[in-house]
Write a structure and sequence with these properties.
This protein is α+β, with helices and mostly antiparallel strands and 237 residues long. 32% of the residues lie in helices and 29% in strands. It is globular, with a radius of gyration of 18 Å.
């Protein structure tokens, strides 16, 4: 029934290549089906002015899509002189999602910026960015711990995200673009590896949904995030 032929509760194939770039303190290329995102983490010995002197660290994110990440060429946002609303919303989401899994006291007064650049998009780019962004963050923090700059591990719990929705009347896990564009209900579920919720974005896209359907989507999300957390652990072991 699904365009891809997957089972209703089946994720797309996930692959993670760490150390993908030479210079970043942490990096990975994450592939969730045909959605490919390059995630890098940069450590800086500074923090935003609003927390300077507090002893707290900060994790933030930036997000962007390459012009031919999609079927037709998109104009670079730099060419228009400003970021679009969707870009700003997604990078804020990534930043606050990652911060939910960080002990900012243990991190110390430094900032880690996670850059998520979509090379190829086929649905779920924000979810892939959060999942891959955590891996880049984990690798960067590992370097801080190895050098002794951070004594106790500031990463409390892995953070991952997956999309779920109602397609052709059925709850499905990990929507690709053909499903995302036709789904009656679409949602993004951001959770910790231990199953705690960080954020849920749910909206009706042409049809309403019941509490029972919401519970079905939650069950699918728990399954998907559990698989992603296991992939994160294997990639950073």
């Amino acid at each position: 029934m699904r365009p891809s032929g997957r089972d209703l509760n089946e994720m797309r194939a996930v692959s993670i290549e760490t150390g993908f770039t030479k210079h970043a303190e942490g990096s990975c290329l994450i592939k969730m089906g045909d959605t490919h995102v390059l995630c890098t983490a940069t450590i800086e010995d500074r923090v935003p002015p609003f927390i300077k002197g507090s002893g707290l660290g900060w994790v933030t994110a930036e997000y962007g899509m390459l012009p031919r990440a999609t079927n037709t060429r998109m104009r670079r946002e730099a060419a228009s002189g400003k970021q679009g609303g969707r870009t700003v919303e997604i990078q804020r989401l990534i930043g606050r999602a990652l911060r939910a899994g960080v002990d900012r006291v243990a991190l110390g007064e430094r900032q880690i910026t996670v850059d998520c650049d979509v090379i190829q998009a086929d649905g779920g780019t924000r979810c892939a960015s959060i999942t891959g962004g955590w891996i880049a963050l984990r690798l960067a923090v590992n370097k801080l711990m190895k050098t002794g700059d951070v004594i106790s591990d500031p990463l409390l719990d892995p953070v991952a995200a997956v999309s779920c929705g109602i397609y052709a009347g059925q709850p499905v896990l990990d929507l690709d673009y053909p499903e995302d564009s036709e789904a009656g209900v679409d949602g993004n579920f951001i959770m910790t590896g231990s199953g705690k919720l960080i954020e849920v974005q749910m909206s009706a896209e042409g049809s309403v949904f019941s509490r029972a359907q919401m519970d079905q989507l939650m069950d699918l999300a728990e399954k998907g995030v559990g698989e992603l957390a296991a992939a994160q652990k294997a990639a950073t072991a």
